[in-house]
Amino acid sequence: MGKAKITQISVPEGWIDFGIGQPQIDILPLEYLAKAATHQFGKKDRNILQYGIQQGNGDFRISLAKFLETQYNAAVDPEHLFITAGISQALDQICTLHTRPGDTVIVEEPSYFLALRIFADYGLNIIGTPIDENGIIIEALEEKLARHKPVLIYTIPTFHNPSGVTLSANRREKLVGLSRKYDFFIVADEVYQMLAYTSTPPQPMAYYDTSGRVFSLGSFSKILAPGLRLGWIQTKPSLLEPFISCGYLDSGGGLNPFVSSIVNSFIDLDLQKDYLNFLRKKYQDRMVTLSEALRQYIPSLAFTDPGGGYFIWSCLPEGTDTEILLSQAHEYQVGFQPGIKFSSSKSLGNYLRFCFAFYGKKDLIEGVKRLSRIIR
Ligand SMILES: Cc1ncc(COP(=O)(O)O)c(C=O)c1O
Predict the structure, then answer these.
(1) Which ligand 1 atom lies nearest to the CA of residue 21?
(2) Phi and psi dihedrals of 101, rounded to 5?
């Protein structure tokens, strides 16, 4: 019998796969979490093993709100937070509550390919809208709104996956204005909001909400550990009501109450703050390493350094097929994500996404050297 699989992905020995958009196993904070768990268990509070309150443990929401205030430089009301099992689950629940098969969702072109999968699962009609270095191009969007009448817009406003760009404050305001005019929800996936290295992003979309139609989705997956399956929605209480009162939570209680209690200690002991600072330095270093290696060894790649997040999004001349390049790259035991995966219209065939979070500096450089043998 082979070795039982534990994690979602497994990379063959010796491979360097820039396509993996996950934290590196070696730097996941097991010892810090052990400390937090010991702290929580020391309280001898058996409530953490009971069905949780639907909105998410009240003590945890207070701690989370305090932590977010230090990160956002803005007030966070614990009553505006709903605890989720991560952004993927939040997206799924939003689709359950607010969409019907055949409804339209507008997404950025490019967009996070696994969100596209969730929307496809719900039978939604997915329409892409273009972005530039400041995020969604508002004029192009408005034209699509009038034509397609979407129920929601899914955006990754900060350190976008895959493009790395951030939606400017001015465009955030305009987007909210449009949500009122055309009556749609804004679903802002802010998984990289706190992973800022060289630029300070605008505040989360929830702070621009003057229309009562904005969901800001946060997650511990990229600032702590994805295996926890823990995140939050920040929005107005009236918008949270259907989430809290749905049958699923009525039966099963709030999401991940036990894990929430341990992360509560993780925050209260200041371990979250320390670990996030560690990650920012580590990832900034890796981003610089990857960027310099790409410029040195593959000068034909065009890209802009991101101000934060996980990814470098790059392109080759029009007509290049990065899916073909990928199969050639595999011969050298190196991988990346081809652009077409992020497109809702099967374009972007000359783009490549690199993740700099999963590998240390030595592997990043080695991976680029291998790729340079096929991209000249
Ligand atoms: C843009 C984006 N959204 C969501 C996720 C997944 O988030 P979670 O683990 O909270 O479900 C990822 C992970 O790569 C992501 O890049």
Answers:
(1) 14
(2) -50, 135
Q: Which helix (H) or strand (E) holds 277?
A: helix 271-297
Ligand 1 binding pocket includes 87 (Cβ within 6 Å): yes
Report pTM. Answer: 0.97
Query: What local confidence, expressed as pLDDT, does residue 138 receive?
Result: 98
Q: Which atom of ligand 1 is nearest to the CA of 160?
A: 1
Query: Is the beta carbon of 21 within 6 A of some atom in ligand 1?
Result: yes
Each residue of 10-50: pLDDT tens digit? 889 999 999 999 999 999 999 999 999 999 999 999 999 99
Q: What is the C-alpha to C-alpha distance for residues 201 and 50, in angstroms, rounded to an integer?
A: 38
Instruction: Establish whether residue 226 lines the binding site of ligand 1, counting it when its CB lies within 6 angstroms of any ligand atom.
Output: yes
Q: Is 156 in the pocket of ligand 1 (CB under 6 A)?
A: yes
Q: How many CB atoms lie within 10 A of CB 78?
A: 17
Q: Are the C-beta atoms of 27 and 21 separated by less than 8 Å?
A: no
CA dihedral defined by 318, 320, 321, 327, rounded to 10 degrees?
Answer: -150
Domains along the chain with CATH numbers: 33-271 (3.40.640.10), 273-372 (3.90.1150.10)
- Ligand 1 centre to CA of 161 (Å) is 9
H-helix or E-strand spanning residue 157: none
Which helix (H) or strand (E) segment holds residue 51: the answer is none
What is the full DSSP assignment across 300-320?
Answer: T-EE---SBSSEEEEE-STT-
CA–CA separation, 15 and 24 (whole Å): 14
Mutate to test the pocket of ligand 1, among 93, 116, 219 (most ligand atoms within 8 A of CB): 219
